[in-house]
Structure formats: C-alpha cells, structure tokens
Amino acid sequence: MDKVELRFLRITYSHTHAGAYALMLCEVEGDRRLPIIIGGVEAQAIAIQVENIKPARPLTHDLFKNLADTLSINLKEVIISDLVEGIFHAKLILDQNGQVVEVDARSSDAIALALRFDCPISTYEFILSAAGIKKDDGEEEGDEGKPRTKIEKGADAMSVEELRTKLEEALDNEDYERASKLRDEIKKREGTN
User: In this structure, is residue 173 part of a structural domain?
Assistant: First the structure.
C-alpha cells in the first residue's frame, strides 16, 4: 500500500459536530487535507503541546513520553491505518533496542504522541482518497501548525496584567485551551512570538 506523509496543520471547531473539534492534517507533498473529528479533551491534549504550554504535572501523553524515554522506547512513526464506519484507526510504530512493535491507538492519542516525540505521521493513499478534502483556493493557512483560536469574550478590554492573572487562573484550573488563547493574546499585545 502506498503511504502518504502528513503533517499537523491545526485544530478548529467542528462545524458539523456540536462540541467537537476538527484535527486537520495535510499532505507534506500535495494539497489534500485529512480532517479527523475529536473531542474537547483530545483537542486540549494536542493544543497544549502545539502551544508549548507546560502543565504543572505531566498529563497522560507526557507521562507516556517520560516513560518511553526512561525505558529507551522510541516512537518511530504514527500511521493512520484504517477508516472503519467513519472512525479513524491508528498504529504506533515503536522501537526498543532494535525490536519494532506496532501498537493499536486512537488517532487523536497517536497524533498527540507524534507531536511530543516529533515523529512522522502518515496514512495510506486509500484513506486519503476516501476521506481527504482538497484545500480551497481561498483558504487561509494561518500560522502553520497552530490551532486557530479566538480570545475569550471581554478580553479585548482587559489590560495585559489582567490577562496574566486570567492566564494563571486557567493554568491552576488546568484549562489549557483557555490558557493558550490568553497567552497568545498577551504575546500579540507585547509584540512577541
């Protein structure tokens, strides 16, 4: 089967599934996108990695990464391996001292781990042909690899110091999606990247 290399593009709110998010992957060499519908918790696990937010305690995917590093296990590749009744299936390709093992995983967990291990993501041509979409001519790329987010209501009237206070509250409450939005707004106002 022909494999196609993908990369993380962004996370957006799903327009077709209430309360869900669309994880968007795109071809490294091509113009097709692979949207995967995921829940809020899964989106948060990916967004905190993409946004480089460091939680006070390791989250599940960070724990897996720490454990793998300690046991000399390397995540070599993530493959979106199947599409069954609209559900994407994934495999983790792990290497421990030269022994390669495949482990079944949910696609959202696999992507969250791929971002933490900085490993390749791929799928098969038949999956991309069945579920992929073409990039619209007028579609904006936005910041590569960063989820598009909007700052919370009323934040435009807050000072940077008030935003920092809200950021600390969000981190204390482990609301990392809100924290990333607040952090981005602070950076925008301070003119830093």
Answer: yes
Contacts of 118 (CB under 8 A, 6+ apart): none
Q: What is the pLDDT along the chain (193 residues), one digit of tens a residue?
A: 799 999 999 998 887 777 789 899 999 999 999 999 999 889 999 999 998 888 888 899 999 999 999 999 999 999 999 999 889 999 999 999 999 999 999 999 999 999 999 999 999 999 999 999 887 644 444 433 333 344 454 566 677 788 888 877 777 777 777 777 777 777 777 776 5
Q: Determine the Cα angle at 137 with ends 135 and 138, to 5°.
A: 110
Q: Between the CA atoms of 154, 157, 160 and 165, what dihedral angle is there, to the nearest 10 degrees?
A: -40
Q: Indicate if 121 and 177 belong to the same structural domain.
A: no
Query: Cβ distance 147 to 95 under 8 Å?
Result: no
